[in-house]
Specification:
single chain, alpha/beta, Rossmann fold, seven-stranded parallel β-sheet, globular, binds nicotinamide-adenine-dinucleotide
Amino acid sequence: MPRMLISGGNGFLGSFLAEQAIKEGIEVVVVDDFSTSSEINVPDEVKLVRKKIEDHDDESRYEYVAHLAARPSPEDYITNPISTLLSNSIGTKKMLDIALRSNAVFLYTSSSEVYGEAAIIPTPETYYGYVNPNGPRSCYDEGKRYSEALIMAYYRQYGLNVRIQRPFNVYGPRIRPDGQYGRVIPRFVAQALKGEPITIHGDGLQTRSFLYVDDWVRATWSMLTRDNISGHVFNIGSPDQISVAKLAQTIKELTSSNSRLEMTERREDDPTRRAADITKAKSILGWEPVVGLHQGLQETVEWLRGKIR
Ligand SMILES: NC(=O)c1ccc[n+]([C@@H]2O[C@H](COP(=O)([O-])OP(=O)(O)OC[C@H]3O[C@@H](n4cnc5c(N)ncnc54)[C@H](O)[C@@H]3O)[C@@H](O)[C@H]2O)c1
């Protein structure tokens, strides 16, 4: 039976990847320190190791190694900058060494945040980024950029079979529901359902592009299992932008909420616009998103309703 190791596999995206792998008849081992996930999200068949990936030594053999461990929420990583950097430096090296020993396919979830304040929207993979190397968000952005560089070094120096994806704001059921965690969709939904003000950082004109989790799973599975894409980087996101104020209004309507929209201080280095150029994923993976924002939000709101009190 083929085996897959997933770091951060108990999180939102990792748990969907673990489920998909089990469906495909793969034995899954997850290493997760529960730093940003609390309840168990993975099916019982998964072997769950509660540990920091930086501290994980593993002599087992795997066919697939997927490195997802990270602290991806700005509120969370800004208050935990050191562990944010370590999971995407030492943690990345640990996962690469396990993949190298196993001669496995290595998949990494980087982030659209490597682009920083992008000058080209929708942003193609060939854009190098405009990132503050030592600002409050640098622990996340530069961790992702360093990891990409390290992964490509293993590809060039050892011929490791690597694939890098840059997800753009993925959302859906099982996303961490507490507003404190800071992801925009669960935060707005929580505020709307509680009738509290929906708080928007800045003037709300900044844009984001959102990808429903089912679309992410299809893209990720294709990236893991396809031949001849070693060393490739793919944007995995939506080319459609929506302003944060419009998103807040849409969620307010979907939840039939009386909440008012409240503008708060803009966050430092918060990108102004975000949208994915997915030309490469379309042509090489034959992938594009199929779930519209409205439909995806409805599913997510229904799931969050059961979680938020
Ligand atoms: N969801 C998105 O919109 C999005 C966008 C861009 C990139 N990503 C990337 O995708 C990956 C998964 O994100 P997610 O949305 O599932 O986040 P998540 O917070 O739900 O999951 C991350 C998981 O990693 C674990 N973790 C964190 N640090 C760890 C460490 N040092 N050792 C072991 N486990 C650790 C957490 O406990 C959590 O279960 C991350 O690498 C993230 O940076 C996500």
